[in-house]
Amino acid sequence: MDALDAKYPFFASAREAVAGAAVSLPELVAADAPAVERARERVERALLEGTVASESGAFPGESAYDAQAELLSYPIARILVSLLDSGPAIEKYAAAEAATAMERVRRDLETDDELRSVSTPTVGLDDLLAEFDLADAVRPDATAPAGVRGGAGGGTAGGATGGGAGRDPDGYRIDVGPYLRLTSPEWGDSWRLVNRALADGAVRVSRAELLAALEAAVEARVAEGLPFELAADEGIAEALESRVADLRRLLSERTYAEPPDVVAPALFPPCMTNLIEKAERDAALSAAESFALMAFLVGIGMTPDEVVAFCADTSLDAEGIRYQTEFLTDDRGTQYPPPTCETLANYGICHNEDDHMQVAADPLSYYEKRVAAADEVTDWRDGRESSEAGED
Ligand code: SF4
């Protein structure tokens, strides 16, 4: 069981390592091994934050979990997701596994050849293409500028060697079949085949686009076979019952049919006002703080553009806002309002001012009540529109 399998647990070699492990999954679950808690964290963070990285530290080597727990947490997370049996949850989970994996791939590819070593195993583009049977379908683009051409590789699964010229080229050609399978016109007009340079049955893509297509391949691999039925006699479902119930509660708490759809900062709950004021003082928000704020703003019906404008004079950068709000506003059926008051209290974000945890269980509900009770509500968006009109 090596660190690379733990880092990329959807690889075929990782699956073999799990199959060959001395301990069985039912035994691990029955013993409530660390891999079980890590699996819960994996799914929870996927559903709430779009990542499966451990909160205890970025991979590799910094996670509180060892390589075995990391690796085994993946099949257990798949079991948890299967038990949740929710289409949107499966999609979120697969997307988060893929996003996290590709973040690691990008870091691996940036690792200087000389720094590649057995102690920091890295994956190269060749390895990734081979993993998804794309080795023959993707080639460096011969028309790319001289000096940036080379093998598609940048290392091996063992990470001991760099590949070919050592630097990856900027452009590639991918056979049209795999291109159509891995990309979607929904990603934007530039992905439509009619807008692509097509020659000899292959489509030209940039390196960033190739990585986006590979992310789709990872996502499809993770989603494959989910949800699956568990053998009734192994007792896994029973042993995971409370963790599944917690995750299910989390999901249902996060499904709101109708956001208030009015932006009245004066009526925001104190937790959110505090976060906004902190960001306005140019202080950095922690990941949990920024997620809570973004989820609240999206939850009250703001678009990513509106959130960017609303946070223009704060420490939050537009790119980060867009990434987070677009994840939160996806159109795949699940909306993600902010965590509950209880969770925010655990993160130190809520100080339960005026004991209003008694009033609502989460900031959105609290805000909804305040909006409903207010005599007059001024929508921040109206003021923005009139000032924009005044500028014309
Ligand atoms: S009780 Fe809830 S709404 Fe009120 S400040 Fe705390 S987290 Fe925010």
Could you please describe the fold and organization of this structure?
Its cofactor is [4Fe-4S] cluster. Belongs to the eukaryotic-type primase large subunit family. Residues 148-166 have a biased composition (Gly residues). Heterodimer of a small subunit (PriS) and a large subunit (PriL). Residues 263-378 form the DNA primase large subunit C-terminal domain. The protein has 18 helices and 4 strands. The protein has 392 residues and is mainly alpha-helical. The chain folds into 3 domains: 3-85 and 227-246, no CATH class; 125-220, no CATH class; 254-391, no CATH class. It has a 4-stranded antiparallel beta sheet. A hairpin with a 2-residue loop joins strand 3 and strand 4 (202-206). Helix 4 packs across helix 5 (67-84). Residues 146-167 have low confidence and may be disordered. Iron/sulfur cluster binds next to helix 12, helix 16 and helix 17. The site of iron/sulfur cluster has 12 residues, from helix 12, helix 16 and helix 17.
